[in-house]
Amino acid sequence: DELYGLPRSIFDVPDAALPHEDAFAEVPCRI
Question: What is the pTM of this model?
């Protein structure tokens, strides 16, 4: 799966950890 055009693995967020929007709300940009 990709998240905003980036592989989820880049963000180290497990699929079930939290909603994807919340992941970005907590961490605006982790590239």
Answer: 0.15
pLDDT digits (tens, 9 = 90+) for 1-31: 555 666 656 666 665 555 556 555 566 555 5
Yes or no: say if 23 and 13 are a contact pair by the CB < 8 Å rule: yes
Residue 6 backbone zone (phi > 0: left; psi -120 to 50: alpha; other: beta):
beta
Helix, strand, or coil (residue 10): helix
Q: Is 4 helix (H, G, I), strand (E, B) or coil?
A: coil
Taking only Cα atoms into account, the Rg of the chain, rounded to an integer number of angstroms, comes to 8
> What ranges in the chain are assigned the alpha helix state H?
20-26
